[in-house]
Design a protein that fits this description.
The protein is an alpha/beta fold. It has one domain: Spore Coat Polysaccharide Biosynthesis Protein SpsA, Chain A (Alpha-Beta Complex), CATH 3.90.550.10. The chain contains seven helices and ten strands. The protein has a five-stranded mixed sheet, with helices on both faces. It has a three-stranded mixed sheet with strand order 8-7-10, with helices on one face. 41% of the residues are buried. One of its GO terms (molecular function) is nucleotidyltransferase activity.
């Protein structure tokens, strides 16, 4: 007998509006495998079951939008990306989800420079969110919190109420009901802010692809 309950849907909002000042070039557009960093992020979130995937753009948004042309990303412009880019981008993405009016349990909050996070890890967060849709869900490695994490829709008003001097971290610290998903990879803690970090992650990608192809 089929359940009459609709599937629990989890969206994703990607903060991709920043200027990549420490990288020296726009990291969203850097090569990643056969695509770009930002396209890989979106594709991984979608493959893990997040839908819709909202990508919030700002700096050089036309170029980033072009890189996302063949992905399922819904594009949103953050006009305030120069001030508190990450928080204001998440707020812009959540406002978009509310405007669309789709029935969603909540959303993943993801970074635009983490194409290296395995789909299986993201899927584990999505599946836990579907089991506990009214509680925040955070992946953890060695007792440290990482991305992407899940913010239930019941907490969206608190997110939108944060001022530019506040942080999402402060909101999460107030929660006593966080569900943690322990993972065995530090990928959730790492991003690519500098050329050295990008090269290190690129080398790991090449090794991973080599193992899949059976080459040393």
């Amino acid at each position: 007998m089929r359940s009459s309950h609709p599937p629990i849907r989890v969206a994703a909002v990607v903060a991709a509006a920043g200027r990549s000042q420490r990288m020296g070039q726009l990291k969203q557009l850097l090569p990643w495998g056969e695509t770009t960093v930002i396209a890989a992020v979106v594709q991984n979130l979608a493959a893990a079951g997040a839908e819709p995937v909202v990508c919030v753009l700002g700096h050089r948004r036309e170029e980033v939008a072009q890189a996302l042309a063949n992905t399922p990303a819904h594009l949103v412009h953050n006009e305030e990306y120069r001030q508190g880019e990450m928080l204001s981008s998440y707020q812009a993405g959540v406002r978009h989800l509310l405007e669309q009016g789709e029935p969603l349990a909540g959303t993943l909050l993801a970074l635009g420079d983490q194409p290296h996070i395995p789909v299986d890890i993201i899927r584990a967060v999505v599946e836990q969110a579907q089991r506990t849709p009214h509680q925040p869900v955070v992946p953890s490695y060695a007792m440290r919190r990482g991305h992407p994490f899940y913010l239930p829709a019941v907490l969206w008003p608190e997110l939108l109420a944060l001022g530019p001097e506040e942080t999402l971290r402060a909101l999460m610290r107030r929660r006593q009901d966080i569900v943690y998903v322990p993972v065995e990879s530090d990928a959730i803690l790492r991003d690519m802010d500098t050329p050295d970090e990008y090269q290190t992650l690129q080398e790991q990608l090449r090794k991973s692809q080599g193992r899949k192809m059976g080459t040393p």
